[in-house]
Design goal:
The chain is an alpha+beta fold. It has a domain at about 5-10 and about 160-265: GMP Synthetase, Chain A, domain 3. It is about 25% helix and about 20% strand. The protein is built from nine helices and 13 strands. The strands form four sheets. It has a four-stranded mixed sheet, covered by helices on one side. The chain has a four-stranded mixed sheet with strand order 6-3-2-11, covered by helices on one side. The chain has a three-stranded antiparallel sheet with strand order 7-12-13. The protein starts with a strand and ends in a 36-residue tail after the last helix. Pathway: Amino-acid biosynthesis; S-adenosyl-L-methionine biosynthesis; S-adenosyl-L-methionine from L-methionine: step 1/1. Keywords: ATP-binding, Magnesium, Metal-binding, Nucleotide-binding, One-carbon metabolism, Potassium, Transferase. GO terms for molecular function: ATP binding; metal ion binding; methionine adenosyltransferase activity.
Length: about 400
């Protein structure tokens, strides 16, 4: 029986593997592993190679993809790096599959027996010469053309949409309880989706309540449905979603499809970049179309998106906007952005020209300068492999610049 309670919210989604090689080529002595996140299920540890590459060579050039399906992990792409002795198969892929929780054939995927295929080449010499060879940080060109967006809203302390933050927190809570043994029946594959009712006040988003939560958790075959619903309701939902957002009309859908025994790569294929909305703002703001994971800092899909998140969050946290969307565009091989646009949803008393001037005067959006300011040459990517790339403490692009003293009111 599906409950309808006071104490329940809703969420968004995550999945399995996504990042891979960057942190292992960055700082020679600081070895970290990074994953590759796909789709929208969750697993507390979704990390693969990005961190490995960066740990040994700060200037590694990485464009790496990952595919998983039943019993198989396929890693492919281009890597140019001075990093040595990176054992992709044993030290990265199999360890990550194990850490995610797939450690037995009963779960449909086993790190000990899965097939690992590696197909990695070096970066095109045309791209290298046009983008970074012979260039300093000041004139380092963008690794490709494209548009990127950064979004921020004052509805949460993290300056992130409440719907997405609750979804991430629900997934993380399930993973934490699974690892601690409090949910002994739970398996690694989970999804969460949260729906909130909002009011729009002078352009700002004001959450009123959580109207629905969808939570799907892979489970052991002999677990009664009643126990799954009871455990997830009491131990996960009501302890994660603030009580003020829940009421008798909140609808809870737990494993709405019924049995969820077959999950992970056995159930569906996973591919890098297939859940970009989960990685970003959960459907709010906008998305330029480029995935983040498996890319080094010269790929502006990643570094540009991180930079404009810092811009948007700084504008909101400084009280200049209550809600903000920043767009930037680049041309391959060109350092300076082609365009910058700021959308304030009518939440600022500044004109577009004034907002543009604030951004241009306080933020340098050249890729090499972004990499320097945000420490993107360091193996810091691990945390982005799970629960999204934004809204988490400790990430350099989540640090804000206080613009209040720099803006003339």
């Amino acid at each position: 029986m599906e409950p309808c309670l006071n104490n329940l919210p809703k969420s968004s989604r995550l999945v399995l593997f996504k990042e891979m090689i960057i942190d292992a080529c960055l700082l020679w002595h600081e070895k970290k592993v990074r994953v590759w996140k796909k789709n929208s299920k969750t697993n507390d540890e979704t990390f693969f190679f990005t961190s490995e590459s960066v740990a040994q060579d700060p200037d590694a050039k990485v464009a790496c993809e990952v595919v998983t399906k039943t019993g198989m992990v396929f890693v492919f792409g281009e890597i140019t790096s001075n990093a040595k002795d990176i054992n992709y198969q044993r030290c990265i892929v199999r360890n990550v599959v194990r850490d995610v929780g797939y450690d037995h054939t009963d779960k449909g995927f086993d790190f000990k027996t899965c097939c690992v295929l590696i197909c990695l080449e070096t970066q095109s010499s045309n791209i290298a010469s046009g983008v970074w060879k012979g260039h300093t940080d000041e004139d380092l060109g963008a690794g490709d053309q494209g548009i990127m967006f950064g979004y921020a809203t004052d509805e949460t302390e993290e300056a992130m949409p409440l719907t997405l933050m609750l979804a991430h927190k629900l997934n993380k809570k399930v993973a934490d309880l699974r690892r601690s043994g409090e949910l002994p029946w739970a398996r690694p594959d989970t999804k969460a989706q949260v729906t909130c009712e909002y009011a729009i006040k002078d352009g700002a988003c004001v959450p009123l309540r959580v109207s629905a939560i969808v939570l799907s958790v892979q489970h052991c075959p002999d677990t009664p449905r009643e126990r799954i619903i009871d455990d997830l309701t009491k131990k996960v939902i009501t302890s994660t979603v603030p009580e003020r957002y829940l009421n008798n009309n909140t609808v809870l859908k737990i494993n709405p499809c019924g049995r969820f025994v077959v999950g992970g790569p056995q159930c569906r294929a996973g591919l890098t970049g297939r859940k970009m909305i989960v990685d970003t703002y959960g459907g709010w703001g906008a998305h330029g179309g480029g995935a983040f994971s498996g890319k080094d800092y010269t790929k502006v899909d990643r570094s540009g998106a991180y930079a404009v998140r810092q811009v948007a969050k700084s504008l909101v946290k400084s009280g200049i906007c209550k809600r903000c969307l920043v767009q930037v565009s680049y041309a391959i091989g060109v350092a300076h952005p082609i365009s910058i646009a700021i959308f304030d949803y009518s939440t600022s008393d500044k004109t577009q020209e004034e907002l543009q001037e604030i951004v241009k005067s306080n933020f340098d959006l050249r890729p090499g300068i972004i990499a320097h300011n945000l420490d993107l040459k360091k193996p810091i990517y691990l945390e982005t492999a799970k629960y999204g790339h934004f809204g988490k403490d400790g990430l350099s692009w989540e640090r804000t610049i206080d613009l209040r003293e720099k803006v003339k009111h």
